[in-house]
Amino acid sequence: MIVRMIDLRPALIAAMLAAPGTRGAQVVSGTPDTVTLAADSSDVLGRARSAQSRYERRRIRHLPLTTVSFAGACDERIGRFCSWYDEGDWYPEPEEPEIEVLRSALLTVLDSAQGRLPGDGWLLGQRVWYHSEAGRWDEALAVAQQCRAVDPWWCAALEGLALHGLQRYVEAEDAFQRSLLLMDPERAQEWRIPVREVDGDARRILDRLPDASNDSIDSALARLWMLSDPLYLVDGNDRKTEHYARWTVSTLKETARNPFHVRWGSDIEQLTVRFGWEIAWQRSINRGSLLAADNVIGRKHPERRDYMPSGAAFAAPGQAKHAELLADKQRPRSLYAPAYAPQLLPMEGQLAVFPRGDRMVVVGTHFLPED
User: Fold this and answer.
1) CA of 254: how far to CAs of 239, 264, 286, 347, in Å?
2) How do strand 65-66 and strand 280-284 relate by DSSP bridges?
3) Closest CA to 257 of 37, 2, 8, 33
4) pLDDT tens across 44-80, in order?
5) Structural domain spans, the chain
6) H or E stretch including 205?
7) 22: Cβ–Cβ under 8 A, 6 or more apart, which residues?
8) Within its chain, how far is the Cα of 78 from the centroid?
9) Helix (H, G, I), strand (E, B), or coil: what is residue 89?
């Protein structure tokens, strides 16, 4: 999946020219809603925020170029962003060494600042994030487990994120459950009920849950996550922990600079919760812009599929038809690629059932695709 910010400057300039009092005034064109993270140089947290902002600005220079055309209409527009589901033959490339050098320098600053401000949750979140971005999930977990943040729920959420990245899904579920119990009820409800990730019929069922009893909520969500578990291949429910990991990432990015260089908003939050965070960044060749930030595109995992059940399957799992359980939806509401089996291909199979008194033996066989 490809995500790119829509250029809103022509509309912004037109509105400024049409507004009273703008005739003869200077018009300055730039990326709207740009994050400004200025801070006093003597302020420990301010210097850390400036370092994080500087890293996100500088790494753009080292992003790989792409000739992907954006002439066609978006598959889906979400706020300020266009998204396309078709990745073509793209697959992640190794990161440029210069980016790792920049990230290591940033982590040095963040670590030092955390030493002086051990209870700062923003610093902790950024440290966990940038270790995980580099693929160092063990180090991310070690940082999360040193948490002394004021909000205990945040410590548990960051630990859950790192455990999920390590594919320790049972432990991740436990960590996220602790986080939900410790956070305020309004936030917990928003995290628990995945209304953004399901189709309209399933959303109507979920929309009724806030007024239901706790037992009814628990029962409905248990059924939803059971149906979303990718083929029940591993212990724990990685689609469920992925959901909470996405909320954790969205939360830690709310007040940090991002590669798109715009303020975090409900549109980026929705993109993150529905489709996950970006696994790679590129710069598109755009002759119409002189600003590097305008050309940045985010790449989600190319093998992602929609494992969330349809509304019909959610309402009556025992009556669900084959098509309602398929992960390959043409207009997905959410996408996910299991780390242990990112590429899942359909194949033909047969099942045979042999009665054995009050029990039965089920035998399955399959035929591998020719390719």
Assistant:
1) 23, 5, 28, 42
2) parallel
3) 37
4) 999 999 999 999 999 999 999 988 766 668 889 999 9
5) 2-345
6) helix 200-207
7) 16
8) 14
9) coil
